[in-house]
Batch of 3 targets.
Target 1
Amino acid sequence: MRPLSCIRSSLPLATVAVLATFAAAPVLQVAYTESLALLLLATALWCLLRRQYLAAVPVVLGLGLTRAVALPLAVAVGAHAVARLRAALRGDEEFPARDRLAVAGLGVAAVVSGLLWPVAVGALTGQPDAYTQVQGAWRGRGEVVPVLPWFDVARWLVDGWWWLLLAAVLGLAVLAVLAPPLRRLGPELWGWTAGYLGYLLFAIEPGTSLLRFLLLAFPLAALAAALALRSRWWRFALTALVLLGVAGQVGWVGLLWRLVPPSGWPP
């Protein structure tokens, strides 16, 4: 196994390589919201890591007007607050009142940002549930219902084996969140990943857009890169990850992005 110092020095570049060659990464090159959302999300988390709480507030509010992913960011803020509070109780560092208020304010901003776009859409259209009506139009049930769409889609895909598919999805999510390399990234990135994966499992209807949604769970790219770098044949493992991602891009563009009339699957 490679020394930990070598893994840490190689991890940032390896993470970018894995993320940039992810199957749905071509969407970052076109006018979809993922590219701006990824920039704002990374900036907000960077500000949180640097303890620039007030600077993070407008970034988080902008994120809420870009993608509906600001609510799980509150989990990252909460994880950061718990880590600082524990360090203060151990006597390792101070957590002054002004910082506590700033962190609390950032958490409130994340919650407000998560509700900002639905409220704005309702106010502008005069229909309070306009946002959920639009979201429901994309779903098989015709309405926004938490969790249950996962059961619907699993039954549609594998019929009687739906429970096994859901157990596998939930198991992979739990393993990813509990993986030591992810936890070593720090409470902020760990909190974002845990919150965002939980948000996806709770709020969305899984479909062809799921790979695109996973782009914003970018710490998972760091997890995959870290596991590859820790292996004995790390060059082969990392190369295999990149090549698999490129092959996934070809498949994703060919099957989903490329529209073959009269209809196609949304990417």
Target 2
Amino acid sequence: MKSYQDMRDAVFEEIFEIAKRDKNVIILTADQGAQTFEKFKNQIPEQLINVGVAEQNMIGVASGMAKENFKVFVYAIIPFVTLRCLEQIKIDICCNNLPVNIVGIGSGYSYANDGPTHHATNDIGIMRTLPNLEIWNPSDSNSTSQIIPYLVKSKSPAYLRIDRGKVPEIYSNNINLMEGFHILKECKNTTIISTGNMVDLSLKISTDLEKIGIPNGVIDCYRIKPLNKELLIKTLQKTKNIITIEENSIIGGLGSSISEILVDSFSNKKLFRYGTPDKFRWDLGGREILHKIDKLDQKSIFLDLKNKLNQ
């Protein structure tokens, strides 16, 4: 397993290695940088195009290139490459089912001190309504790197959202991407389902719960759409209490997706959802501070679950 500086490094190092062998692999960036781009500029400069601060135009350019059989990755900060470009993504990419890969950096509160303009807490809820679009939300650099070869070969559009900066490593081995999720701890009577940077937090909360006599399992759901419904239903069959933890809006994200499956398939499960509230977060102080304000930190979630699961 390779060592990466961060999730962004994992994405573009993997793309670079493939692009050296395949001249049809192209990156479009909206004036957003990455360390690996120096390698592109020095060795394959024609495969890296900076369109400037013009994200909507970038989606149009990517769609046209995909029509000409290029394999295109577009890259910018999440709110700018998703919500600002929603109509272009819907019409140009998804309606035509073009294999354009949207890479968004800064999931959740990655850009905590930049305010609501940069927070990425409602993009999942919006993007998962678009037909044909896959949504990937990996939890560490190693799992991120494994997604890239799949995206290059895929014939469908995809949205890959990654965290900013260094994150704890969850995986040391390859995972079965096609399953859409990975069981990190065997599912018990209580099961935590998490995604992205909150998987590491969920493992810590899992340990806290075990210390007070509540055995539990942990699932990393790295593919938000399509969810592997059949395998999830089978996996959760014996679980009574299901907990979802995400750094996304409580409306429309992972918790909402899981609740839809439970309503359609079970009548005897309890679901406890943890995510960011339905409000703009103007507070400053960094990611940990915002988690505490939202009661999305380790202590707040543990104490709330301790109370609910012991009732």
Target 3
Amino acid sequence: MAFCLFSPQDYQVFQRNESNEGSVIFSGTVSCEITHFTVEIFEEISQEKIEDITWEHQQESHFFLQMVLPAGGWYIARIFAFSKHDKSLISLRFGVGEVFIIAGQSNSTNYGEELSEQSSGMVACFAANTWSLAKDPLPGAHDMSSGGSPWLFFGDVLSKKLCVPVGIAITGHGGTKIKEWLPNDEYHGQSEEKKGLFNWLMIRIQQLGLQGFRALLWHQGESDVGNGTKQDDYFCRLKTIIAKRVNNASGIFLGL
């Protein structure tokens, strides 16, 4: 019996809202003999059952269910698909917490001399449309850097303080100047190695979706200081990047 789950993925983090809740989507494809689904959700540590929902399947090739859950995790989801003669099960972890996109130059990616390790087990990462438990080097950097990052420490501290899972999606490229992050219609001087940085960032934003992350953390500026970029020029270029991004996605922009 065919049963393919698109969402949630193992270790996916859904962004919580101002009410300390998050919309969790269950979706995928199934074969036509499926008659109904059941989704059971447990809190991983306490094993407390949070939700138990059953619904009939309308003989379509896909399914979709959206539910609102309180911030927390990891949760364990058990998704059952039933036919007249059989049943299939997919089990995975997910959470409702805080998600951040990281952009900029070297310290936004994997340029540390040593690989770091998370201690909380509550930090996940997102890249190439895939979630996983975070470990260095983090996937998703435009420069494909392979050293250590500061983001596992960041996630550990934030998760401990907020008591929710933390999701990280890095997109940076070491040694980049602010002008190299401008949208393609604003600046055409990027080298082939650094071409398309703005689009690379926007793809990650769009993959996470509307209200899919808390903030974009911007860690960049050293290359401009060394290159003598004027303050007014930096301000105007960063303003252009923020304006273009805001027109295409939600979430706030924070400079580090």
